[in-house]
């Protein structure tokens, strides 16, 4: 049944058990058919009246157990390699006494520590009490089966720490793991962004009050002047004051749209487009909607995108008519879907290729009535949503703005 070679090995074990009158435990590989298996065997002599009469034994197949042990050993080696080479951070393994069993990672040396400083010690023996208290609180939560994240500052560096339970399948939890990542640069960037936002808020306040107040005075005096003298000069003054109002509105928008979208809602793009169309002066303009999807977005800020793109198309259509001195023709604006986004296109003259990189710059305009901030506002709102915008089309076919990297929720099933 075993084959001659394997049978001889078994016979040797039995002889040794009888001759030495001792219990033997051993592992052996036995092949039944095509698949070899690992067996664990225990045999003992049965002595009657001082003579070994029998051998009693038991065997079990431990092939799967050995494979699991091998897998665990490989995982341990992988963990050790990962921990020792963990970039900009450190990895800690903590037992149920809150004692560090392992501590590895490039950040240890940067923080003035070594594995020997940490392993075999508790948090209160390594770190200041305030940090240690906070760490132990999160370790306890991990032993309760709850993964948590915290931020701590240590020796001038900032760390984000993820604490998770370590529970191998089918075994009781005896350890938790803490992975610390150095986020000092991120924290500094966050503070710089906050400082810039505060400056923008201050700028918006100046624009809102210090510029609008004298502008209101000028408008009031102009109205009084026009009661007695309404001519081309007063009309030019009125147009200039209106343009200043538009500039102030656009500057305020630029100052307030830089923040990321925090509370998006489901927005029906067709309904929003129709609503925006009602807010735009659409003389000699028509709209065609080829869109039937919803998207998670800030409704108010996305409305600004549509309205600015609509106005941009209409203003350039008016400019074309003025240059060509032709009979007024309606400009058609189309809003449609892409595989990963949407587009807004018109059927008038497009933007030359060498100017397309400039159109999103603040202050860029090709019309006398434009402020040059509309498309810059559009780009910032799009990027605040995590999307991308680009200008395509051709001088013959019109301008086409494509907004991509959007997760659209369609009402139909694509074929």
Automatic annotation (TrEMBL):
Gene3D superfamilies (alphabetical): 1.10.287.130, Histidine kinase-like ATPase, C-terminal domain (3.30.565.10), PAS domain (3.30.450.20)
Domain Histidine kinase as annotated: residue spans: 206-404
Coiled-coil annotated spans: 58-85
Catalysed reactions, semicolon-separated: ATP + protein L-histidine = ADP + protein N-phospho-L-histidine
E.C. number(s) listed in UniProt: 2.7.13.3
Enzyme class, UniProt record, top EC level: transferase
Pfam families: HATPase_c, HisKA, PAS_4
GO molecular function: phosphorelay sensor kinase activity
InterPro entries registered for this protein in UniProt: HATPase_C_sf, HATPase_dom, His_kinase_dom, HisK_dim/P_dom, HisK_dim/P_sf, PAS, PAS-like_dom_sf, PAS_4
UniProt KW keywords: Coiled coil, Kinase, Phosphoprotein, Transferase, Two-component regulatory system
Record flagged with keyword Kinase: yes
PANTHER family for the chain: HISTIDINE KINASE 1, TWO-COMPONENT HISTIDINE KINASE
NCBIfam families: sensory_box
Protein name: histidine kinase
Organism: uncultured haloarchaeon
Highest classification ranks of the organism: Archaea, Methanobacteriati, Methanobacteriota, Stenosarchaea group, Halobacteria
């Amino acid at each position: 049944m075993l084959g001659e070679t394997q049978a001889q090995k078994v016979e040797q074990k039995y002889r040794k058990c009888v001759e030495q009158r001792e219990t033997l435990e051993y592992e052996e590989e036995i092949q039944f058919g095509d698949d070899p298996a690992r067996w664990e065997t225990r045999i003992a002599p049965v002595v009657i009246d001082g003579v070994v009469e029998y051998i009693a034994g038991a065997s079990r197949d431990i092939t799967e157990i050995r494979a699991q042990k091998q897998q665990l050993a490989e995982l341990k080696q992988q963990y050790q390699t990962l921990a020792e080479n963990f970039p900009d951070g450190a990895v800690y393994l903590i037992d149920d006494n809150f004692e560090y069993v392992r501590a590895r990672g490039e950040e240890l040396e940067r923080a003035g520590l070594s594995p020997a400083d940490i392993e075999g010690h508790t948090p209160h023996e390594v770190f200041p009490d305030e940090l240690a208290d906070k760490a132990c609180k999160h370790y306890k939560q991990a032993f309760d089966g709850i993964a948590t994240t915290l931020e701590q500052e240590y020796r001038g560096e900032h760390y984000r720490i993820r604490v998770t339970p370590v529970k191998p399948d089918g075994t009781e939890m005896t350890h938790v793991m803490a992975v610390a990542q150095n986020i000092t640069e991120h924290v500094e960037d966050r503070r710089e962004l906050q400082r810039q936002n505060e400056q923008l808020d201050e700028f918006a306040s100046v624009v809102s009050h210090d510029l609008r107040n004298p502008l209101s005075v000028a408008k009031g005096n102009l109205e009084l002047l026009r009661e007695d003298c309404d001519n081309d000069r007063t009309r030019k003054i009125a147009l200039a004051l209106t343009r200043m109002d538009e500039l102030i509105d656009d500057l305020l928008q630029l100052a307030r749209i830089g923040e990321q979208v925090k509370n998006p809602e489901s927005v029906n793009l067709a309904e929003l487009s129709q609503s925006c169309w009602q807010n735009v002066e659409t003389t000699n303009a028509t709209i065609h909607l080829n869109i039937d999807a919803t998207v998670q977005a800030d409704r108010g800020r996305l409305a600004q995108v549509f309205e600015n793109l609509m106005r941009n198309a209409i203003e350039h259509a008016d400019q074309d008519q003025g240059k060509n001195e032709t009979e007024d023709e309606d400009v058609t604006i189309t809003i449609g879907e892409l595989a990963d986004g949407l587009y807004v296109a018109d059927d008038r003259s497009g933007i030359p290729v060498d100017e397309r990189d400039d159109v999103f710059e603040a202050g860029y305009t090709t019309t006398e009535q434009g402020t040059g901030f509309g498309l810059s506002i559009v780009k910032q709102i799009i990027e605040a949503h995590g999307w991308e915008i680009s200008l395509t089309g051709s001088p013959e076919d019109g301008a086409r703005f494509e907004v991509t990297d959007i997760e659209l929720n369609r009402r139909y099933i694509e074929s």
